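Milestone M4 deliverable, item 7.
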Amino acid sequence: MAIQDNPSHNDYLRRMTFAAFLKSGSLASEEETYHSDGDHHNHGVDKQNSLSTNSDSQRPSNASSASSDSSSPIYPLSPWNQTYYPNNENTTSFTSASQSPWNQTCSPYHKSPWVYQTRNSDFEDDPDNGLIGTVVRQEGHVYSLAASRDLLFTGSDSKNIRVWKDLKDYSGFKSTSGFVKAIVITGDNRVFTGHQDGKIRVWRGSKKNPERYSRVGSLPTLKEFLTKSVNPRNYVEARRRRNVVKIRHFDAVSCMSLNEDLGLLYSGSWDKTLKVWRLSDSKCLESIEAHDDAVNTVAAGFDDLVFTGSADGTLKVWKREVQGKETKHVLVQVLMKQENAVTALAVNLTDGVVYCGSSDGTVNFWERQKYLTHKGTIHGHRMAVLCLTSAGSLLLSGGADKNICVWRRNDGGSHTCLSVLMDHDGPVKCLTAVEEAEDDGDNHGEKGDRRWIVYSGSLDKSVKVWRVTDYA
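Output delivered:
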């Protein structure tokens, strides 16, 4: 057995057994304590993380990251079953002594900290819908993901960005600091990552070696930052009575969104600002004091509109307009103002619908008419809605209640819940969907028969892959 060849592990068992003998306690209870300490270690103990933990209590969109991990039970994994065992409450029966090389948490056969596991299919009667597989990470939480063609990019609190192709470990790259809270991908194969340390880093794959990604810059560029820092008028007062250059975020970059038609990137931050970047030269065009509290979510929409949601409970609409010789984003409408934080946004560009998730578990939506008009509220989650994504006529919502609800927008504007995906064992933090390529001879391209591959990242340290259809 591989675990018997590890002397340090045997020493650990002997020490714990002797300690258990002295304290008249069971080895199982000591093991449970050991695992619990490990979870706390994964959260980090540096000053910056402790500060962000305090901030999370005021920002419901991120609060789950500070509380979910320590309370969730620890379940072993097997290569024959990619999911946890949510129905088994007896966690003390699984100790290190009972782990085998088939348990992925200590398997010596995997070089990557991620393991792809296929599912024992429960959907053989309906192959077009259900869970396809799971990618499980051994430590940390999945905070962000993005999909581009056949590649999946995942970000976590370990500062790593992993790249997957056909759900196999394809590549990866690592930043120097700040775990990854947002990822967007441009059409020219550039990857923008937003980090806890307030920086936006830019990466690109090599043309000769597509598996190799290297950092090609950051936002703002060093040249622009040095140029702006010379003029005192380019500084703004930040917290702790210090001034910073306004073209750089001085708190966590919580969200990003692309408008490739206009060649713009939008970034929102816990520093309460919305910044507008030009993709062609990475220049910061605007820095907008958008909200009274942290900006949790941003979404580029239709008609050159941009939507921002904040922990201050407001949902604001910004429009790009020409003012003299300049083009600026101006506030045109406040769609919502409530006590509960706005935690997620999604836009259906085809039908002109804006969806807004809140910390109370509701999803409100507006439709484009002469003005944006509120059309209703969707109730499907018992806890905060943490992420939203739109896929054709479908809306997918992930929540702190560990569930993913799949909604279909009907012709009359009402929404029907098609299914609830419940295999995650922790809050669902991020979602994205891509349309599945048609196989030869398939007729899934017709309206109502489109198939989608959905990726969901969770604070249970896993990424799950689903297939959903409009008719499910």
